């Protein structure tokens, strides 16, 4: 019989399930970020224990491996106290005539809609090292961002 006519199992047509990608670079976290990781692990462990079968447990176990790796590699980092924008800083700035405020946090804690910006985001990288009153380049434009206030996480 030709190979073209053999019945393949349904599993052969499924997309492979890869591990969740770990963001590149150091895993800097704020104290709030570390607490969020712990909460996520507790919730996933409870969900794994309550999983109905092995198939239901697989995606939960995959997520749990990701968060345990993030906990193991977490580097809790305090915000700078010298008025220079860095990890954990709360920054108020003007961009394109519009005033905004963000706090620079770790990749897993980031929520741009809530003003929590990953320290690895392009806007955060542009702000890093600036001080209040300084203008910095962004998106190919010199002096695109005016830094108004730099404070600790808040």
What is the tally of beta strands? Answer: 7
Spatial extent as radius of gyration = 22 Å
Q: Mean pLDDT score, rounded?
A: 90
Instruction: Report the structural category.
Output: alpha/beta
Order of helices and strands: EHHEEEEHEE
Indicate the percent of residues in helices.
25-40%
Distance between the termini: 70 Å
CATH fold annotation of the largest domain = Chitinase A, domain 3
Strand order, sheet with most strands: 5-4-3-7-6
Quick one: CATH superfamily of the largest domain?
Transcription elongation factor, GreA/GreB, C-terminal domain
Instruction: Classify the oligomer.
Output: single chain
Uncertain parts: none
Overall shape: it is: elongated
Sheet with most strands? 5 strands, mixed
Number of contiguous helices: 3
CATH class of the largest domain: Alpha Beta
Q: In the CATH hierarchy, what is the architecture of the largest domain at level 2?
A: Roll
Number of self-contained structural domains? 2
Which key terms come to mind for this protein?
single chain, 154 residues, alpha/beta, Chitinase A, domain 3, 2 domains, 5-stranded mixed beta sheet, two-stranded parallel ribbon, elongated, kinase, DNA binding, RNA polymerase binding, Tscrpt_elong_fac_GreA/B_C
């Amino acid at each position: 019989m030709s190979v073209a006519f053999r019945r393949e199992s349904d599993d052969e047509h499924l997309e492979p399930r890869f591990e969740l990608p770990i963001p590149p670079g150091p895993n800097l976290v704020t104290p709030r970020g570390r607490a969020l990781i712990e909460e996520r692990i507790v919730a996933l462990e409870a969900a794994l224990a309550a999983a109905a079968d092995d198939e239901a447990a697989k995606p939960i176990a995959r997520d749990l491996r990701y968060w345990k790796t993030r906990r193991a590699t977490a580097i809790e980092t305090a915000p700078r106290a010298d008025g220079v924008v860095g990890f954990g800083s709360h920054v108020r700035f003007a961009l394109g005539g519009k005033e905004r405020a963000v706090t620079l946090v770790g990749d897993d804690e980031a929520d741009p809609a809530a003003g929590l910006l990953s320290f690895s985001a392009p806007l955060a990288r542009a702000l890093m090292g600036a001080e209040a009153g300084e203008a910095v380049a962004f998106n190919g434009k010199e002096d695109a961002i005016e830094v108004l206030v730099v404070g600790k996480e808040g």
